[in-house]
Amino acid sequence: MNIPAWTKPALYGAVAGAILLAVVGFMWGGWVTGGSAQDIAAKRSAADVVLALTPYCVERSRTDANSVAVLAEFTAATSTGRRTVIEKAGWATPMGADAPNRALALACATALTPV
């Protein structure tokens, strides 16, 4: 079987083009691997859950029977200790969860902090 003379340069060109396309796609084209896409999706969904539950946390702070004492402790706490106060009060524990959500506690502390 005779292979035409143009086959070898065409194959080299195709391989070089594929490599160049992959490099450009991953570097500047926004391509990601499946694992990276799952990590990005997990981070975005966690952020969306916090965003959706922040009003719930603020409402729990208003309807809690012990809210006056907790809010007094909250305003007396340092900016880093406010998250802990909200977690101890249970305001950052979503329904059905066993432990408070740290990101939700931070978002709730931001929402409750007077301007």
Main features:
115 residues; mainly alpha; 5 helices; single chain
How does this structure look, described?
With 115 residues, the protein is mainly α. The chain has 5 helices and no strands. It has a domain at 45-115. Helices cover 70% and strands 0% of the residues. Helix 2 (34-63) packs across helix 5, helix 3 runs antiparallel to helix 4 (82-89) and helix 4 (82-89) crosses helix 5 (102-112). It is rod-shaped and about 90 Å long.
In short:
Keywords: Membrane, Transmembrane, Transmembrane helix. By secondary structure, the protein is mainly α.
Q: Which sheet architecture does the biggest sheet show?
A: none
Distance between the ends: 82 Å
Strand percentage, roughly?
under 5%
The ordered H/E elements are HHHHH
Q: Please bin the fraction of helical residues.
A: 55-70%
- The global form is rod-shaped
Number of helices: 5
- Count the beta strands: 0
Structural Rg: 27 Å
Task: Set out the fold topology.
Blueprint (H helix, E strand, L loop, with lengths): L6 H21 L6 H30 L3 H10 L5 H8 L12 H11 L3
